[in-house]
Structure formats: structure tokens, C-alpha cells
Amino acid sequence: MKITVIGAGHVGATAAHRIAEKQLANTVVLLDIVEGIPQGKALDMYESGPVGLFDTMVFGTNDYSDTADSDIVLITAGLARKPGMSREDLLMKNAAIVREVTDQVMQYSKNPIIIMVSNPLDIMTHVGYVRSKLPKERILGMAGVLDSARFRSFIAKELNVSMQDINAFVLGGHGDSMVPVVKYTSVAGIPLTELLPQQTIDQLVERTRKGGAEIVNYLKDGSAYYAPAASCVEMIDAIVNDRKRILPCSALLEGQYGIDNIFIGAPVKLGKNGIEQILEINLDKPEIEALRKSAAIVEENCNNLAPLLA
Ligand SMILES: NC(=O)C1=CN([C@@H]2O[C@H](COP(=O)(O)OP(=O)(O)OC[C@H]3O[C@@H](n4cnc5c(N)ncnc54)[C@H](O)[C@@H]3O)[C@@H](O)[C@H]2O)C=CC1
Ligand SMILES: O=C([O-])CC(=O)C(=O)O
């Protein structure tokens, strides 16, 4: 198993280290456009092996030929937002970066599974899909796992219970229009609505929607990376170990939920072949409407990008 991480910044480096520690691959390649950064960070990670107790080979490079025959490629290259910016403000610059990166990756790997991380997430996943020409099962975006993790952590804190017992689903686009599905959120199987008043649930939902911005406002010069990297690694683990996990990921919908030809967060079954199934669960009317509204925003942005993708 060879896993390449493109972008040796906050998310990429943190994810690469977790992948190595968990020994999810024999080789982890860390690639960045800046010379020295991926080499230095990868060597530092590799040197943590004897005390971190892992044997994964980690090496850094600026040369795409080193990524040849990757099984999984995690794309984290691009700009991160600063306070006051929306993820969509990164659109044009990151689309150009993701386009170039995807083209380069595909020159050296015939049939990788690509997990997109760069923002705005659902649109960048579309860019990766169009440029890579990979089958739709092999390209997906990381967002729902992170948004759900945030929602779960807020619920655990509110109820003073273990994070382990909380199940939650956040669907839709990775932006203010995301759709936390309260109906399918439970604590050890007990519906959340039986444990918390609606007003508190609404507050937790709102905090989840703005979870990314909350961190940006603290950090000032970048965005979250520990929870994002952990979320990427959960998806990679599901693929590497063929776990058939049901996780919310940005996937190409083709008619499900009345949405066609758009990448948006939906529950998928993740295994060794990538997306093995997209689950169409029962949603209430307001949730369906929110999901479609979220998809319309993604579609509009993708249409604006069409000239760049040709
Ligand atoms: N989907 C999600 O839930 C999340 C998405 N993100 C997004 O992930 C991206 C990365 O975030 P961070 O790691 O915090 O940013 P960062 O600025 O720490 O790292 C980005 C890295 O990309 C590299 N890069 C830029 N252009 C490149 C190119 N053409 N080829 C190769 N490498 C290139 C930079 O040199 C830098 O090292 C951002 O777009 C951010 O918005 C971040 C957190 C969560
Ligand atoms: O907020 C950002 O820009 C980064 C991100 O997507 C997140 O942390 O959810």
C-alpha cells in the first residue's frame, strides 16, 4: 500500500504522520511545491518511528514521479482561509492548484483513489473528478466526517458523556449550508431529541455549521487541521482495511435525493474499492430542501469553473 499526500502544510503533514503511526501503508509520500518542506517534515516523521513504534517508510519530495503507482492520494494542496473569508473565497486560486495537482498525480498513478480535502471542498472534488477522469467510486471528498465529529464532540460535552457513544450525521455541502441530520443523531441509540431540549440542539447545530470559522477566528492565520487530518485518516483506514464503514463523504450523486451530477455530502459505504454504495436515507422535507439548496450552491460554482476545467 502506497499513500501519497499532496500538500505538506498543516492538514497534509498531520495526516501523513497519523497514517504512518497507524501503519496504514508501507510507504507514505509527502509532496509539496515548496522545496525542502516535504523532505524535512517527512524525515522528521520517519525519525519518530522508533519511539512511535512504526516501520512505515515516509519520504518527502517535490517530484511527482516519486508518487508513481499510489493506491490512495490525499489532496490537501491549496490556500487556507483567514478570518472574515468564506471557503468559496478560495475558489479560483484553489481550483487552479487542484487542477494542476490532479493532472500531475494522474500522470504517474493509473487508478488511485483520490480523497480531496482542499476547499471549497465539494467543488474541488468536482475539479478532481473532471480532471482525473477516474470512475466516480474512486474520487470523494472529506468533510462530512469532520463536520459530524464536531457535532458529536459538542453533544458529548453538553451531555457529559463519552464521545464513543455518539452517532451523528452531517450531510450536504461543506459550508454554512451543511445539513446536520438531528433525526439520525443518537446517544447509545437514544435519539438526541429525548436527551436535549430543541433550543440546545439548535445551538449545537449552529455551532457545527460554523465550526470551521470558529477555529479560523482563533488561529487567525489558517484553519483547523487536527480534526480534519483525523477525519481523513478515518476514511483512509476504511478503504485500506476494507471496513465497509458508513461515513458521510462528498460523493457524486446521480439522482439520489433528487440531486444529479453534483458532489455533495451523503452517507456512503467505504471499502477497498472506494465508494461501494451511496445510501439514500429517509429525510424530512426541510432536510431535503436544505440538501438541495446546498447542492444548488455547489452546482453554480462548478458551472462558473467550467472554462478552467476544459
Ligand atoms: N475539507 C475539509 O474539511 C478541510 C479542508 N481544508 C482545506 O485544506 C487545504 C489545506 O489546508 P492547510 O493544510 O491548513 O493549509 P497550509 O497552507 O498549511 O498547507 C497547504 C500546502 O499546500 C501547498 N501547495 C500550494 N500549492 C501547491 C501546489 N500547486 N502543489 C503542491 N502543493 C501546493 C503549500 O505549499 C502548503 O504547504 C485548504 O484549502 C483548506 O481550506 C482544511 C481543513 C478542513
Ligand atoms: O474552515 C475552514 O476553512 C477549513 C475547514 O474546511 C474546516 O475546518 O471545516
Commentary on this structure:
The model has no long low-confidence stretch (mean pLDDT 97). This protein is globular. The chain has a 6-stranded parallel beta sheet with strand order 3-2-1-4-5-6, sandwiched between helices. 43% of the residues lie in helices and 20% in strands. The protein is built from 10 helices and 14 strands. The chain is an alpha/beta fold and 310 residues long. It has helices spanning 10-21, 37-47, 49-52, 91-108, 121-132, 144-159, 198-209, 211-219, 226-240, 285-309, and strands spanning 2-6, 27-31, 57-61, 72-75, 113-116, 139-141, 166-167, 170-171, 179-180, 186-187, 190-191, 245-254, 260-271, 274-278. It folds into 2 domains: 2-141, NAD(P)-binding Rossmann-like Domain (Rossmann fold, 3-Layer(aba) Sandwich), CATH 3.40.50.720; 144-309, Lactate dehydrogenase/glycoside hydrolase, family 4, C-terminal (L-2-Hydroxyisocaproate Dehydrogenase, Chain A, domain 2). Helix 5 (121-132) packs across helix 10 and helix 6 crosses helix 9 (226-240). It binds 1,4-dihydronicotinamide adenine dinucleotide and oxaloacetate ion. The site of oxaloacetate ion has 13 residues, from helix 8. 1,4-dihydronicotinamide adenine dinucleotide (NAI) binds at residues 6-12, 32-34, 76-81, 90, 94, 97, 100-101, 117-119, 121, 142-143, 146, 174, 222-225, 228.
List keywords for this structure.
alpha/beta; 310 residues; binds 1,4-dihydronicotinamide adenine dinucleotide; Rossmann fold; L-2-Hydroxyisocaproate Dehydrogenase, Chain A, domain 2; 20% strand; three-stranded antiparallel sheet; binds oxaloacetate ion; six-stranded parallel sheet; 2 domains; 43% helix; tricarboxylic acid cycle
